[in-house]
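Example record

One chain of 111 residues, shown exactly as stored in the release files.
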Amino acid sequence: MAKGEAKAMLGRWAFLIGVVLAVIFGFISAGTWLSWLLVVIGLVVGLVNISDKEVGAFLTAGTVMVLMGYFGGQTLSSVVYLSTIFNNILTLFVPATIVVAVKSVLSLARN
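Predicted C-alpha coordinates for this chain:
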Protein backbone atom coordinates (compact mmCIF):
# COMPACT_ATOMS: atom_id res chain seq x y z
CA MET A 1 0.00 0.00 0.00
CA ALA A 2 1.41 3.36 -1.02
CA LYS A 3 1.88 6.19 1.48
CA GLY A 4 -0.83 8.32 -0.16
CA GLU A 5 -3.26 5.40 -0.12
CA ALA A 6 -2.62 4.75 3.57
CA LYS A 7 -3.12 8.42 4.37
CA ALA A 8 -6.42 8.50 2.46
CA MET A 9 -7.57 5.32 4.20
CA LEU A 10 -6.71 6.80 7.62
CA GLY A 11 -8.72 9.92 6.80
CA ARG A 12 -11.73 7.93 5.61
CA TRP A 13 -11.72 5.70 8.67
CA ALA A 14 -11.26 8.67 11.01
CA PHE A 15 -14.27 10.40 9.47
CA LEU A 16 -16.44 7.28 9.63
CA ILE A 17 -15.41 6.47 13.20
CA GLY A 18 -16.01 10.07 14.27
CA VAL A 19 -19.54 10.15 12.87
CA VAL A 20 -20.39 6.74 14.33
CA LEU A 21 -19.06 7.77 17.76
CA ALA A 22 -20.98 11.06 17.57
CA VAL A 23 -24.23 9.19 16.95
CA ILE A 24 -23.64 6.33 19.42
CA PHE A 25 -22.67 8.66 22.23
CA GLY A 26 -25.75 10.73 21.53
CA PHE A 27 -27.63 7.91 23.25
CA ILE A 28 -25.01 6.92 25.83
CA SER A 29 -23.65 9.30 28.41
CA ALA A 30 -19.94 10.00 28.04
CA GLY A 31 -17.44 12.13 29.89
CA THR A 32 -15.28 14.93 28.57
CA TRP A 33 -13.00 12.33 26.97
CA LEU A 34 -15.49 12.02 24.11
CA SER A 35 -15.23 15.71 23.25
CA TRP A 36 -11.44 15.49 23.19
CA LEU A 37 -11.56 12.33 21.09
CA LEU A 38 -13.93 13.96 18.57
CA VAL A 39 -11.71 17.05 18.38
CA VAL A 40 -8.64 14.89 17.69
CA ILE A 41 -10.52 12.87 15.07
CA GLY A 42 -11.72 16.13 13.49
CA LEU A 43 -8.14 17.39 13.33
CA VAL A 44 -7.04 14.13 11.68
CA VAL A 45 -9.87 14.40 9.14
CA GLY A 46 -8.95 18.00 8.33
CA LEU A 47 -5.24 17.28 8.05
CA VAL A 48 -5.19 14.07 6.04
CA ASN A 49 -8.56 13.50 4.42
CA ILE A 50 -9.12 16.59 2.28
CA SER A 51 -7.14 17.02 -0.94
CA ASP A 52 -6.61 20.35 -2.69
CA LYS A 53 -9.40 19.57 -5.15
CA GLU A 54 -11.87 18.89 -2.32
CA VAL A 55 -11.23 22.03 -0.26
CA GLY A 56 -14.05 24.16 -1.70
CA ALA A 57 -16.66 21.43 -1.42
CA PHE A 58 -15.52 20.46 2.08
CA LEU A 59 -15.55 24.04 3.34
CA THR A 60 -19.06 24.54 1.99
CA ALA A 61 -20.33 21.25 3.42
CA GLY A 62 -18.39 21.72 6.66
CA THR A 63 -19.79 25.20 7.16
CA VAL A 64 -23.32 23.93 6.58
CA MET A 65 -22.71 21.04 9.00
CA VAL A 66 -21.39 23.40 11.68
CA LEU A 67 -24.27 25.85 11.27
CA MET A 68 -26.94 23.17 11.17
CA GLY A 69 -25.29 21.31 14.04
CA TYR A 70 -25.44 24.45 16.13
CA PHE A 71 -28.94 25.53 15.16
CA GLY A 72 -30.23 21.96 15.20
CA GLY A 73 -28.86 21.48 18.70
CA GLN A 74 -30.46 24.73 19.84
CA THR A 75 -33.80 24.10 18.16
CA LEU A 76 -34.05 20.49 19.28
CA SER A 77 -32.71 21.05 22.79
CA SER A 78 -35.87 19.50 24.23
CA VAL A 79 -35.12 16.26 22.36
CA VAL A 80 -32.17 15.11 24.44
CA TYR A 81 -30.74 12.50 22.08
CA LEU A 82 -30.91 14.63 18.93
CA SER A 83 -29.45 17.64 20.69
CA THR A 84 -26.52 15.58 21.95
CA ILE A 85 -25.93 14.02 18.52
CA PHE A 86 -25.89 17.46 16.90
CA ASN A 87 -23.45 18.76 19.52
CA ASN A 88 -21.20 15.73 19.02
CA ILE A 89 -21.19 16.24 15.25
CA LEU A 90 -20.41 19.91 15.84
CA THR A 91 -17.47 18.89 18.03
CA LEU A 92 -16.19 16.70 15.18
CA PHE A 93 -16.70 19.13 12.30
CA VAL A 94 -15.51 22.43 13.80
CA PRO A 95 -11.84 21.37 14.11
CA ALA A 96 -11.87 19.69 10.69
CA THR A 97 -13.38 22.76 9.03
CA ILE A 98 -10.96 25.14 10.77
CA VAL A 99 -7.93 23.05 9.73
CA VAL A 100 -9.07 22.89 6.10
CA ALA A 101 -9.83 26.63 6.08
CA VAL A 102 -6.37 27.45 7.46
CA LYS A 103 -4.74 25.12 4.91
CA SER A 104 -6.73 26.85 2.16
CA VAL A 105 -5.70 30.34 3.31
CA LEU A 106 -2.05 29.28 3.50
CA SER A 107 -2.31 27.81 -0.01
CA LEU A 108 -3.82 31.06 -1.30
CA ALA A 109 -1.08 33.08 0.40
CA ARG A 110 1.62 30.99 -1.28
CA ASN A 111 0.19 31.60 -4.75
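Notes: Residues 58 and 64 are 10 Å apart (CA to CA).
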